[in-house]
Amino acid sequence: MTTLLASNTATAATATEGDVKTFLDNLRTVIAEFLGTDTANKATALATLQSLFAGSLTKTAAYSVAAADRGKTIIATGTGGWTLTLTAAATLGDGFVFAVVNNSSGVITIDPNLSETVNGATTYSVLAGETTVVFCDGTKFILFGNVAMTLEGQRGALTINGLQTHSAGTKYIPFGRLEGSLNQATASTSMVESRNIRFFQSGTFRFSFRLKTNTGAATASAQIYKNGAAAGTLRSTTSIAGVVYTEDLAISAGDTVQIFYKCSSASDTAAVRESKVGTAGSPLFSPFVDIEVGQR
């Protein structure tokens, strides 16, 4: 980057016409380096200043983040399962920042240099569908705004409104926590639980899911339960494509809500997809991880 000359180069009492011309030429050079040859190109200016989100890189395999990547958004695609290695924090410097978007189907591991840490750990796994901003303070790395597209992920301890703390390894959503383990395929002819959410907020929540069968020869049934007891309407279908059902339930803080399902034939399977929860009039989240029972 060209160094901007001192203003007194052109304003000093002894400045000559040549000094003024030199100053103006120097000023134009500096501005051109910021804006590029096209002064209307704001993107060039942002990229030159290495502003966050000023540019992007698409990667499909292991990559080392360098100083030149300051402000970039690194988009992971493909199957994932690779490592994003970080240059030493001291080299990148205080204020270095970049973003990661994991559009791959696997995990992208952020791995700082040697014993340096990211959010206090030696590595950090960005799950499929997550985005995060990585900030360097010169000695370590800190993550901001880590968001999962499904609003689910294996994460450490979390406190909501200073009241509820999640222990490490739990899965959480803005208004509750996923509990228990995910049941895979079932040909059970009696109701079995697919997933369980514990709510930390009270209110009326809207639940939605798509129910389907694998062949259409059997009937798939599903029902929303609250605290282990049937609370929603029993839904049944023979549709292979599936039918979307929606209903509102009043929930109190501390309640657990489950989706139970079954199949009328032990030789077929039922599936619940696109299970979502939210509030009426607002977008529904997907804390159930868009599960398809039998083919997740």
Concise overview:
The chain has 296 residues and is mainly β. It is built from four helices and 21 strands. The protein folds into three domains: 8-46, no CATH class; 50-148, Sandwich (Jelly Rolls), CATH 2.60.120; 173-278, Galactose-binding domain-like (Jelly Rolls, Sandwich), CATH 2.60.120.260.
Q: How many separate domains?
A: 3
Instruction: Write down the CATH class of the largest domain.
Output: Mainly Beta
The assigned CATH architecture of the largest domain is: Sandwich
The amount of helix comes to 10-25%
Indicate the low-confidence ranges by residue numbers.
Answer: 147-182, 286-296
CATH topology of the largest domain: Jelly Rolls
Cα-based radius of gyration, to the nearest Å: 27 Å
The fraction of residues in strands falls at: 35-45%
SSE series: HHHEEEEHEEEEEEEEEEEEEEEEE
SSE class: mainly beta
* C-alpha geometry: elongated
State the distance separating the first and last CA atoms: 52 Å
Query: Going by CATH, what is the homologous superfamily of the largest domain?
Result: Galactose-binding domain-like
Number of strands: 21
The largest sheet is: 7 strands, antiparallel
User: What is the quaternary state of this protein?
Assistant: single chain
| Overall pLDDT | 78
Total helices: the number is 4
